[in-house]
């Protein structure tokens, strides 16, 4: 009976489309690259109040990042800036970007193909997948807000921030971004100490990077109550599509999962015309209500159809007979014995 009730509640259609979103899957951390400028991430920050945007490029190995202020964010302008950056540091092996129109354009993909650079596009509507550059943007944005509040020149304040950031030891690696990028420390106004030997430094940063990532993953998974998703290829799922407070949490029409890679799924629309790439956290497995005669609990040996009904009726009749016999037998069956004080008397 409990299983029937639970199944009935879980398969409530109206409840499913307005229910709370699913908990995310356990975090998957990015592997530490083998060398500087081997794997980079790109993102656009903005638009700012004056209409300009900032292109941010982060190196996964050193955490060194480059910036460029743009008045236009069209694909050709983004490619022009990246060509200038690549001319200084060389071509990376992979580039991670979101699904913005500049990075999803065929012209941008052709530019990367010509330069033999692998494009890794993150899951739509899931900024955590490009976490390194998103985290840098959060730090970077504080400087921009201060410059705007004090009405200072944005370009000059940006350069001050960059030299301070590049010459400060990173919390994860324990070394400065400039030192890991160029194998030397850049000179600043602060006095310098003797540098750590290069070989010892590389061993330390790999251990520190792994430790910090594992610690961050453990904390995030515990805070978000993360657990593995039960969504698989072929399942019917509900997809998040919320626009305002009155819109249901999930699209009322179930979608079909046609592909799954890690925490990323590709779902197909009900009419089969469109496919969407989403994080598995943006979907919820659709539970259908079972039709009469279907098996609901195979573990208890209960069968379907007429046999189940006849078996249930036999149990009911048996219980009824027991109840009737219990009503007729009102006196206890134990041996009754008079108290010792009545041994010298005849008691009827």
UniProtKB/TrEMBL annotation:
Positions with biased composition (Low complexity): 293-308
Among InterPro entries, the record links this protein to:
Integrase_cat-core (IPR001584), Retrovirus_Pol_polyprotein (IPR050951), RNaseH-like_sf (IPR012337), RNaseH_sf (IPR036397)
- GO BP annotation list: DNA integration
**Entry-linked Pfam families:** rve (PF00665)
Q: Which organism is it from?
A: Littorina saxatilis
Extract the GO molecular function terms from the UniProt entry. Answer: nucleic acid binding
The segment(s) forming the Integrase catalytic domain are: 32-185
Q: Where is the composition biased (Basic and acidic residues)?
A: 310-330, 337-348
Q: Where is this region: Disordered?
A: 291-348
Which Gene3D superfamilies does the UniProt record give? Ribonuclease H-like superfamily/Ribonuclease H
Q: Under which name does UniProt file this protein?
A: Integrase catalytic domain-containing protein
């Amino acid at each position: 009976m409990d299983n029937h009730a639970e199944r009935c509640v879980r398969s409530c259609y109206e409840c499913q489309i307005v229910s709370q979103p699913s908990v995310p899957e356990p975090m998957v951390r990015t592997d530490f690259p083998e060398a500087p400028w081997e794997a980079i991430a790109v993102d656009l920050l903005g638009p700012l109040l004056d209409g300009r945007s900032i292109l941010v490029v982060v190196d996964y190995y050193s955490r060194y990042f480059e910036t460029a202020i743009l008045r236009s964010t069209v694909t050709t302008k983004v490619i022009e800036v990246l060509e200038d950056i690549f001319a200084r540091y060389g071509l990376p092996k992979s580039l991670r970007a979101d699904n913005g129109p500049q990075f999803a354009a065929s012209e941008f993909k052709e530019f990367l193909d010509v330069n033999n650079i692998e494009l890794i596009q993150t899951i739509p509507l899931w900024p955590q997948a490009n976490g390194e550059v998103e985290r840098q943007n959060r730090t970077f944005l504080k400087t921009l807000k201060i410059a705007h509040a004090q009405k200072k020149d944005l370009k000059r304040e940006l350069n001050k921030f960059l030299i301070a950031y590049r010459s400060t030891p990173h919390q994860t690696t324990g070394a400065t971004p400039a030192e890991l990028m160029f194998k030397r420390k850049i000179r600043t106004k602060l006095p310098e100490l003797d540098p750590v030997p290069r070989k010892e430094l590389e061993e330390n940063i790999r251990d520190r990077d792994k430790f910090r990532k594992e610690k961050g993953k453990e904390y995030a998974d515990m805070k978000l109550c993360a657990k593995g998703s039960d969504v698989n290829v072929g399942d019917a799922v509900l997809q998040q599509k919320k626009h305002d407070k009155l819109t249901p949490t999930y699209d009322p029409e179930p979608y079909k999962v046609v592909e799954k890679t890690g925490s990323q799924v590709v779902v197909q629309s009900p009419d089969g015309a469109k496919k969407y790439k989403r994080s598995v956290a943006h979907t919820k497995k659709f539970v259908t209500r079972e039709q009469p005669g279907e098996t609901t609990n195979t573990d208890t040996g209960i069968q379907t159809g007429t046999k189940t009904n006849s078996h249930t009726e036999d149990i009911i009749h048996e219980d009824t007979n027991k109840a009737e016999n219990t009503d007729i037998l009102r006196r206890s069956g134990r041996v009754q014995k008079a108290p010792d004080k009545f041994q010298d008397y005849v008691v009827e």
